[in-house]
Structure prediction request, 280 residues.
Amino acid sequence: MMTAALPPGVSAQDLALRLELALTAGKEAGRQTLRYFQQDNYSVQRKADESPVTIADRSTEELLRSHIAATFPTDAIIGEELGRSAGTSGFTWILDPIDGTKSFISGVPLYGTMVGIEHSGRSLVGFVYMPGLDEGVYASTGSGAWHFRGNQPPQPARVSQRRLNEGLFVTSQLDSYAKRGAMDVFHRLEKAAYVTRTWGDCYGYLLVATGRAELMVDPILNVWDAAAVQPIVEEAGGTFTDWQGNPTIHAGEALATNGLVLAEVLGITKKCEPSSSFTP
Prediction:
C-alpha cells in the first residue's frame, strides 16, 4: 500500500496529537451512550428529515465538542446534531455521536461513535467505536489502521484478500436504494456476492477494514457518516470512494472495498445517477 502524502502545512505530529484526543474522547463519549442503551430512561424525537434523535446523541456530541474545544480551540467542528463551529487552523473535526441511531433505539449493538478529522478537503484521521461490542478501529494517514477489542492491545487492521463471489457484501437500510432509484444496483451486488447482510452503518465499514467483509455500500449518506471511515479503510489497504470511483467523503454516497473487488463493483455502480440529485 502506498502512503499518501500529507497536505502542505500538516505534519505527522499534528495528526498524532489529534488522533490521541480522538481515541480518548471518542471512547469516553461512546461509553456514555451505554447509560441509555437498552434502557427506558430516554425518549425518541424526530428531526426534520424524520430520522430519530435522542438525548444520548446530543449529550455525546456535546461531550466530544467540549474536549475538542479545550484542546484544539482553533479547529473547526461539524456535528450531525449541533451543526458547525468555525475554526482557523485548517483542521475540521467531523462528528457522528451515534451512527446507527435506529439500531441504538432498537437495542441492537451495531451502532457506533465516529470521529473524523479533515484538512484541505481530505479526511486524515478516523475513529470508530462500537460501545455495545466494546470494539473499534482507528487510523491516521501514513500510520496504518488499528483494531481494538476491550482491554486487549490494538492489532493491525487489514482488509481481506477474497473476491466478491466468495465474500460478504454489507449495506445499510435498503430503502435508500429505492430512494435514488437504484434497487437494481442492490440486486446485482447481492447476486455477485456469496453472502449479503444489512450489517451496515459504521459497523459495515469496520467489517471491511478488519477483513471480515469485502464490500460495504451506502447509496445515500452525509459527510459525518463518511469522514471517519475513509482513512480507516484506506490505511487498512482498501478503497473508499463514491459510486464513480472517486476517493471522497463529500459525494453523498460511498462504497468501501478490499481493493480486489473494486473494479467489479464499479462496473455495477457507475451506471447509476449520482446521489447528489437526492436528499439523504
